[in-house]
Amino acid sequence: EVQLLESGGGLVQPGGSLRLSCAASGFTFSNYAMAWVRQAPGKGLEWVSSIDGSGGSSYYADSVKGRFTTSRDSSKNTLYLQMNSLRAEDTALYYCAKAHMLVYFDYWGQGALVTVSS
Amino acid sequence: ETVLTQSPGTLSLSPGERGTLSCRASQSVSNNYLAWYQQKSGQAPRLLIYGASSRATGIPDRFSGSGSGTDFTLTISRLEPEDFAVYYCQQYGNSPLTFGGGTKVEIK
After folding, report:
1. For position A20, what pLDDT does the model report?
2. With CB atoms 3.0 to 4.6 Å apart as the test, which of A60, B3, B37, B77 could cross-link to A65 if both were Cys?
3. Which residue among B35, B92, B101 places its CB closest to the CB of A44?
4. Among B47, B7, B51, B6, residue whose Cα is nearest residue B30
5. DSSP classification of residue B104
């Protein structure tokens, strides 16, 4: 059974940094692309980033490019999202998802809440 | 970027009725690369349909997807109580990946 468990969310001040983790199990982690998708409170879904199975290629939405970095550690079956220069508009529930060929999302975690506020 | 507009915003139906949800793209979606997700209150989204019309693993056959180019439809043939939720379309044929704003299917 595929399981994705996010951690690392919390309250951070504008301009601050936070790192989210996503522990994966139930599949061969290094064989699959992964992604982050976020949902602001009461709003719809927004793709944030995708990374290929090797970790060699990553892709970002314009809204986070240059501020967020996605990486993965196959020895730990873990996906990461390093978020820097956080803004109020980054406040959202961040979902980790297994991504089919980088582009659509066949399994999702339960999300980690990030709140950016002073 | 490809903007996806979902309609209606809210669909009020009774169990057993047929639900038809629309997703319209601002430009043609390459290869009809469109997916549909269901999100119940307080839960993560679940993949229903990919490639415009292929059901994901374990999805009941009362869910069907159709369409091409800029116009896509998700049909729920007979609504079950567990189908009342928000539905999102997502295109992956053009960069960047984008989602529609969602259609809420509520009990009438």
Report:
1. 98
2. A60
3. B101
4. B51
5. E
